[in-house]
Structure formats: C-alpha cells, structure tokens
Specification:
heterodimer, A: about 80 residues, 5-stranded antiparallel β-sheet, about 35% strand, B: about 700 residues, 7-stranded mixed β-sheet, two-stranded antiparallel sheet, about 60% helix, elongated
C-alpha cells in the first residue's frame, strides 16, 4: 500500500487515525514501534507543546509524546467520524 | 611444610545452605506500579546494592509466607526483552541469568498495569515465551475501573496460559492470593508456548538443532531478532559451529523486507490487539477532574504557563515556609552552644563541642526544612506524573542546547541537591546526553549554595524595592538564572565538542495525572532526609571537627594577657593552622580581593561548600568587631590591615560568582564518579568549575575595582 501523504505529524488536535505504514529504517522510529506505534494501531492527537513540537498522542488510552521529525515517519489513514 | 595436598574450593563453589526457597524476578513496564507492589510484598525486608560493574541499583526483597521465604528481585522497568537502555539491558540479563554470580530466576512475577494493557501485554507475551513459571499481577485495577475499563481476568489468564491476580497495591486488596501463588511458584507449571510468529519459531528450531541442551529456546529466538551482541555471546557459544555460521544468513532471510525490531513489534502488537479485543471492555468514560485538568494543561500555552506557575510556587514555598523552622533551629543551636560553655567552662573541650560540633553541624542542619519542602514538591510532581509532562513541554527548549526533555527532571532535582539530580539522569538512555546533563547539573543552585547566598545577600544587598519586587530577592533570582545559563552553556559546549553525536531519541510516556500515594511519598521523603542527615552526621561532622581543630591549634601562650578576649582570639586564629593555610594561599586569591580569612574559609569549604558559612562565622567571630552581634554585621565592618573595608561590592559579587560556579562538594564528585564509572568526569568537572569560578570572581573584582 502506498501512502496518501497523511502522517501523524499532520493530524489536527482531537483527530483520530489508524497507522497504515511506518518508515522503519531509523532506529529511533523502531524504538517508537516497540512502544506500540505500529501498523493497525489507532492514535489520537491530544496536544502539542508550544510551537507544535513535540506532539502528544493517545494510544490505547495512554499518552505518548514524540517529536515532529519522528511523527512524519508514521503514515496514517484518518478515522472519519461515524466510521 | 607444603600445603599442596590441601583441597582448594573456589569461593563461589563452596556449598552454602540456601536461604530462600525460590527466586522470582519482578518485571514490568516503567510506571506500571511495579515498585509499589514490590514494596507491598516485601515490606522492609529489602536490600539495595549494585549490579557488578554498572550503576544500576539492585533491589532485592524477601517475601515470607507461612514457612517459605521467597526472594524477589525488583528489575528496572522495561518495554521489551530487546534492551534499549542500560537499565533495560540489566533487566534482560537478570531474566536470562547472564549476570555474574546470579542464577536464572525460578520464576517471573509480571506486573501488568490495567490502565495500560496495550504496552503491558507486549512485554508479558515475551515473558510467557521464556517458559518459566510465571504469575501475572494486574495492578491499578481501581484506576482502570474509574476510567471505565473492565478486564476479563479469567479470559486473559486462559489466553496467556498463566495465572492472573488482580491487585490494588495501594489498599492491599488481592495481595494475599498473590503472596500464596508466589510462595508456591516452584509447583507452578511453566506456560506452554504461544506460537504467534511461526517463521521465527521455525528458524530458531533449525538454529538450535544440535546445540547444547542447556540452551533456552526463547534465547535463540531473541538471538535471531537482536543479532549477536555483547550480552548474548553466551548463547552463541552453545550453538554448534555450522549454526553459528548460518546465523547471519538466517537473519537476512527472516528480515529481508523489514528491520527485526520493527517486525517484532508489528507481529506482537497485532497479537496484543487481538487479545485486547477479547479481554477488555471499555465503557464510555465520563469526564473526571483528572481529565479536565489534563485537557486544560494539554493546551500548549496554558500548559507552559502552568509549568512556570508550578515552579514559582515551589520556590516561593521553599523560601517562605522554611523560614520559621530555620529560625527555630538557629536559635536552638546557639542556645545549646551557650549552655555548653556555661556547663563546662571555657576550655578546649567545650570549644570543640560548642564552636566545632554544635555550630558546624547546626549551620548545615538548618537547611533541612528547605530540603524537605523542596523534596516534598519534587516527589509529589514525580508521583502525580507532572514531571513527565514538564519534560514534554520543555523538550524543544532543551533540544536547542543539545539535550532532550528528559534532562529537565535531573536539572530540576538538582535545585535541591545535585546528588539526587545526577542519580536521576539514569532515565536518559543516550550516554552522551546523560554525561552532558551530569556535567550541567552541579551548576544548578543547590540548597547548599543557599546559605552562602543568603548570608552575603542579607549583608550586602539593600532590601530596597524594585517595582513590586525586592532587590535581595532579585539578586537571588539572578544567581539562579546565572547557574542555569552556565549549566546550559556547559552542556552545549560538551555536546559540540567531546560529546558530539547524533541527536538523542525522544519518546516519553505521559501518564494520566494520579493522586500520589501518601505512604510512597513519606517513604521517599524519609529516605532523602536520611541521606542528608547522614551526610550532616558524617562528612559535615568530620569537617566541622577538623576545621575547628585547624583553627584552635596550635595554641599560643605569647598573647599579652592585658588584651581583650576578642583581640586575643584574633591573634590565636591568625597563627592557627587554618590561618597559616589561608595566608599561604592568600597570593593566589589576592586578584579576587580575598584576604587570608576569606581564603581559609574557602579552603575549609572544598569538601562541602555550606561549611564556608560556619568557618566565616568562626574566623570573623574572633575579630575585634565581634561585639557587632550577627555574622552579616561583622562581615560588613570587617577591614583589611590598612583599614579599608574587606567586603567591597565587586569583591562580594566575585565571591557570589565563585560560589555559583565552583564544585565544592565531595558528595557530588563521588556520585559523578559512580554514575560515569570513571574518574575522568569528576576531575574534569572540578577543574572546569573551579577555574570558571576563579576567573569570574577575578573579572568581577578587577573590573569593579579598576
């Protein structure tokens, strides 16, 4: 599957999405995968620090923060309301 | 006479009666309530040591149930059996029995946080694959229920193939069943393997064929994922030669299209999601005060303002609330000293007790209220989950100086004391980042610098108002900022030179706000107070006695008996060992505007900077201005031999700069040595900080006096 350009970094506050693909070459991104950011997981953009970086996401009820540069490696399909 | 016939048994092979019936490793995610549960199960029957060669603390406790004693080893929190940080590596090495002198545990207590089953089950699934007797403790069940999460423990137990015990560690509910299960772990059958990754299992079976029979299947699977590392060299040894040669080919075949860690995470989390769908029922959660606070603090601007507000309240409390208590301690120690002289008369012994011990130790114990108040806040902020949020909010700012948000926790802790602050750097996985933080931490204004600042500011900065602020407070604030700036510059400098390297990774779990547990807060607070008082009781006590002796001896009998007591004492001081040392180094400190008295005080303060106040008290108590009462009054009127004032404004500013920089703290040096495992960093830190302090003080004095 090829991605349509949406990544976790482009999600708006309160928006939910499902991770569809991960650019896993970077060891730092692999580390985030160990924390549960993998294909099929649903994430919600909960907040951003000042300047929009780092971002906080809800992942199965828990908060996890990551930097913009890493969030760009996670390609997502936004969950449409009522889906 | 020859002893060659004697049978020698290596020490580690001498048979000893086994003290415990079983040994269990306690494993779980960070923040899963693991340590609270461990404390609950073992109570005060604990021992804290270190793992050989590393700085990770080894917590061992004993669980007594009926006639059995079970050893519990509380391992550092980890997310996976593929280690990432030093602490995680220790956890994995203990589980696999790779630590020298420690056998593989007889069983596993897996701690699973009911409010974070997703990450928890990822680890528990890997633990079950070890095929060791395993018991799962499901913690935080009360918090989960409040959040509307219900867990079907029977179904979870069936899917994992191991018993699951729900517990509430804070109230003790469910602990009795867990204790019984742990004590009986030797009779628990190991779980059968859950095959969730058939390709890996097949490859591991092929690799292990013909291997040493003592090899663990889970270790072979892990070897395929991680590749050969320093830790798993022992596993590689047990494989036969052809298998060893094939390892790389097999890994290439398995992980052709995806890195091993990524594949590992994807496959296991797919299984976790499947299990979650079967065992977790989430009711629609309602709005609680916690979620309202979280939601508000989640907005970037209120969050950052909130952080500064919290820090402001903490500092206000440290200064305002501590004052009455400090006054009591101060009055108490001078009354005690006076009583000693009245009781014993004026002689060497009463002087040792009153001027040496009571005054010296008292001048340090006086900071206990401030330290305790600061620690209460730091512990509360940490336990409530706020410090993680502070790290998240400050990440960008810290990144601009080459550190990460994780450095903020050690930095803030260092405002109380650099020793716990440096110990808190263990949460930073990147080594360069960690050392840069360790070297920056001692610049933060610690509670031991406060007495020096407080004394000099009270004496030489007028208490005039600047707008709605007080000038004295403003100068103190300026010194805090100065320390922060120096620390940041140091970190930046190190990250650009000897610690240059890639940007550290950053992934931070942001826990929900939790109400801190009173018992946990008290246990931690008492621990901190004990550390400080032990230091006051040993290092400071010894320094107080040594400094007193250096100032008291040798006695001289060539003082004109016609002189008044204060002048006689001044002459005595000048020809004492301390006075002579001060005079010896006086030329070194002359460019800073210091005379021999200030120099002796600074020398005496090298092992512990707060001692300088006590020594200044002694040195200037014996001058001819001693009737001026308070120490700050005496400093104000102290003069040089030519009659000019000693403490001029440039000299005082220089002295403040010297104390803001200089690493006068034996305990900090010792902890840097321990945490970096080399003498290189403490020596560098000492020389670097002393040099900066000296140059800064010299610049201030020379420019101000010119």
């Amino acid at each position: 599957m090829r991605h349509n350009g949406d990544t976790m970094a482009s999600l708006k506050r309160g928006q939910k999405a499902i991770i569809r693909a991960v650019d896993a070459g970077d060891p730092q991104v692999q580390r985030l995968m160990v924390l549960g950011l993998v294909e099929g997981a649903e994430v919600e953009h909960a907040s951003s620090a000042i300047g929009g970086d780092p971002m906080e996401f809800r992942l199965f009820g828990c908060g996890i923060s990551l930097r913009l540069e890493h969030a760009r490696h996670f390609h997502v399909a936004p969950v449409v309301a009522g889906d | 006479m020859t002893k060659s016939s004697e049978i020698r048994i290596p020490a580690n092979q001498i048979p000893v009666a086994k003290r415990t019936d079983a040994s269990i490793a306690v494993v779980g995610n960070p923040n899963s309530g693991k340590s609270t549960l461990f404390n609950r199960l073992t109570g005060l029957k604990q021992r804290i040591g270190n793992y050989p060669g590393v700085t990770v603390e080894r917590h061992v406790g004993y669980l007594k149930y009926e006639d059995k004693t079970t050893e519990l080893i509380d391992l550092p929190g980890t997310h996976s059996l593929s280690a990432h940080s030093l602490e995680e590596r220790i956890a994995v090495d203990v589980i696999f029995g790779r630590i020298k002198g420690t056998a593989m545990p007889d069983g596993i207590l897996a701690v699973l946080d009911a409010t974070n089953l997703y990450q928890g089950l990822f680890l528990v699934q890997q633990l079950v694959e070890l095929e060791l007797p395993t018991v799962v403790a499901l913690t935080m069940t009360d918090a989960a229920e409040k959040a509307g999460i219900q867990v079907d423990t029977a179904e979870l137990s069936a899917l994992l193939g191991v018993p699951v015990y729900p517990v509430v560690a804070t109230t003790g509910a469910g602990l009795e069943m867990l204790r019984r299960a742990l004590s009986d772990i030797r009779n628990l059958a190991p779980p059968r393997r859950v095959r969730i990754w058939p390709e890996l299992t097949a490859a591991a079976e092929q690799l292990a064929a013909g291997a040493d029979t003592s090899i663990r299947f889970a270790e072979v699977e892990r070897l395929l994922i991680d590749g050969a590392t320093e830790s798993n060299a022992g596993v590689l040894e047990k494989l036969d030669a052809s298998a060893k040669a094939h390892l790389d080919d097999m890994r290439r075949a398995l992980f052709a299209d995806e890195p091993p860690i990524a594949r590992d995470a994807r496959i296991r989390y797919a299984w976790v999601r499947d299990v979650l769908g079967k065992v977790q029922k989430s009711a629609p959660s309602f709005v609680t005060w916690r979620s309202r606070i979280t939601d508000f603090l989640n907005r970037p601007v209120p969050g950052t303002i909130g952080l500064f507000l919290v820090m402001a309240i903490v500092f206000q409390a440290v200064f305002a609330w501590a004052t009455p208590l400090m006054d009591i301690i101060d009055a108490g120690s001078s009354a005690l000293g006076g009583a000693v002289f009245q009781l014993l008369g004026d002689n060497a012994f009463s002087s040792l007790i009153a001027d040496g011990i009571i005054a010296g130790v008292g001048s340090v114990v006086i900071f206990l209220p401030q330290i305790l108040i600061l620690f209460v806040f730091i512990i509360l902020l940490e336990d409530s989950g706020y410090l993680a949020r502070a790290a998240y909010l400050m990440d960008r700012a810290m990144r601009s100086v080459g550190l990460s948000g994780q450095s903020i926790i050690p930095m803030i802790s260092s405002f109380a004391c650099a020793v716990p602050g440096i110990m808190a750097t263990r949460v930073i996985p990147n080594r360069r980042d960690r050392i840069a933080t360790i070297m920056a931490a001692p610049f933060m204004t610690c509670s031991a610098r406060l007495p020096v600042y407080a004394l000099l500011i009270a004496a030489f900065v007028p208490a005039t108002s600047v707008g709605f602020l007080n000038l004295q407070g403003l100068v103190l604030f300026g010194l805090y900022i100065f320390g922060i700036v120096m620390g940041i510059l140091t970190a930046l400098l190190l990250r650009k030179t000897s610690l240059r390297g890639p940007k550290p990774p950053f992934a931070l779990m942001l826990p929900e706000f939790r109400r801190p547990n009173l018992q946990t807060v008290m246990i931690q607070l008492l621990g901190r107070a004990k550390v400080f008082l032990r230091r006051a009781g040993t290092v400071i006590f010894a320094v107080a006695v040594i400094v007193w002796a250096l100032a008291y001896f040798p006695r001289t009998d060539q003082i004109d008996p016609g002189l008044d007591a204060n002048t006689a004492a001044a002459i005595q001081m000048e020809q004492s060992w301390l006075g002579r040392a001060g005079k010896f180094v006086e030329p070194v400190f002359a460019p800073l505007g210091w005379d021999w008295r200030v120099s002796s005080a600074v020398i005496a303060g090298f092992p512990a900077r707060e001692v300088v106040v006590a020594v200044l008290g002694t040195v200037f108590a014996v001058g001819d201005e001693a009737d001026e009462g308070t120490l700050s009054g005496r400093l104000k009127s102290a003069t040089r031999a030519d009659g000019t004032l000693l403490f001029t404004l440039p000299m005082v500013i220089g002295l403040l700069i010297f104390y803001a920089c200089c690493l006068q703290c034996a305990a900090t040096l010792a902890i840097i040595r321990r945490e970096t495992n080399t003498w290189r960093w403490p020596i560098f830190g000492w020389v670097y900080m002393t040099a900066i302090g000296y140059l800064g003080a010299m610049l201030a004095y020379q420019i101000g006096t010119a």
